[in-house]
Amino acid sequence: MDAVCLFLIVSAASKAFRIVLGWHPQSSDPRQIRLEIDAEKTFIEARWCFVLWGVSTGIMVAGIADVFPDVVPGAMCGTGVLQSMEGFGRRAILFRLVFSGVMFLIIEMERLNRSRPDSPLAAGISRLLLLSSPVFFIGVWDTFRAFHRIDVQAPVSCCAAVYDRFRPLTDAGTASGVPEGYWIIAFGAATILLLASSARVSFVKLGNFRRDAAITAISSMVWVPFAAASLVRVFSAYYYQVLHHHCPWCLFLPEHHFAGFALFGLLTVVALEGPCGYLLLSMIKAAPDLHAAAFRRARKSGLRILFSTTIFLLLVGLPPIIWRLRFGVWMGGMEF
């Protein structure tokens, strides 16, 4: 799929370059008409690239989590597979996620752009596509290097690397020197802020909407790392039913009901939707006629954030509650 995405992005970028250089929406000469046709082709190629890139990235994560551990000696989950990839696997995932985020914004801008016959955002979309292209090429190259580095003969230590981080073992109860209880407090505060701001964007029609969208964007960017840290450091124990096993990749295993796909998928949705509304509102200053469409899209982002955050809270909150009801105590203790 990456090969198809490579063809699509090269084709789209070449057209986008011509659009940036010669786009004149008020003109009706043959050159502008050809550019408008190129713009339509570019946006179609960008949409297909986004879809195929997302599917390819999902297959890559599934392979690292559930397929390659059977191939790499000593690997029990994705942690061991990433060890075998010698750092290129993490880089590839990072760049693929960054490119996915930019492409998501491009697709949403293009949907707004299609609501007007003069395509006022065409040049801006083309510039953003050109700027994101290097991230795509780095992601593809690192993906190739990551899988090329896998050695099916050399054993890895896998989750032993997780425990090697804690010397002495008492450090396992902290994250970056901060007790886990404080991470939970920070996660709770960030959750309240995110739910309040996204609810205001979704349902309240009074006040400064652009400011509310900005608060939602900031709160989502704050919430995602706190939620991920709390998931791995605290809530994962109720899936593993063992303390101090701070391995995110084990959540993707079948014995834990593939919970990692849902949990990290919800985090990804919030990370994508959080800044989307504010960025769209900021990018349509030159096209005020698109404000109503951007306003509706920002409200939709708020609803998606509310839904995703609520489902995430249920998935991380129900296992501890069930454990408490069964055994009368929480797993371990939290220092405040």
User: How many H/I helices?
Assistant: 10
- List segments where confidence is low: pLDDT < 50 over at least 5 consecutive residues: none
- State the shape: flat
Strand numbers in spatial order across the main sheet: 1-2
- Mean pLDDT, to the nearest integer, reads 86
Helix content: over 70%
Structure commentary:
- This protein has 336 residues and is mostly helical.
- The chain folds into two domains: 1-158, no CATH class; 164-336, A middle domain of Talin 1 (Up-down Bundle).
- 72% of the residues lie in helices and 1% in strands.
- The chain has ten helices and two strands.
- It has a two-stranded antiparallel sheet with strand order 1-2.
- Helix 1 packs antiparallel against helix 5, helix 4 (88-113) runs antiparallel to helix 5 and helix 9 runs antiparallel to helix 10 (291-327).
- The longest helix is centred in the first third of the chain and has 38 residues, at 30-67.
- It is flat, with a radius of gyration of 23 Å.
- The termini are far apart.
Write a concise synopsis of the structure shown:
The chain is an all-alpha fold. It contains ten helices and two strands; from the N terminus they run H-H-H-H-H-H-E-E-H-H-H-H. The protein has two domains: 1-158, no CATH class; 164-336, A middle domain of Talin 1 (Up-down Bundle).
Topology overview:
Blueprint: H1 2-22, H2 30-67, H3 78-84, H4 88-113, H5 122-149, H6 160-164, E1 174-175, E2 178-179, H7 180-203, H8 209-240, H9 259-283, H10 291-327
Antiparallel strand pairs: 1-2
Helix pairs in contact: 1-2, 1-5, 2-3, 2-4, 4-5, 4-9, 7-8, 7-10, 8-9, 8-10, 9-10
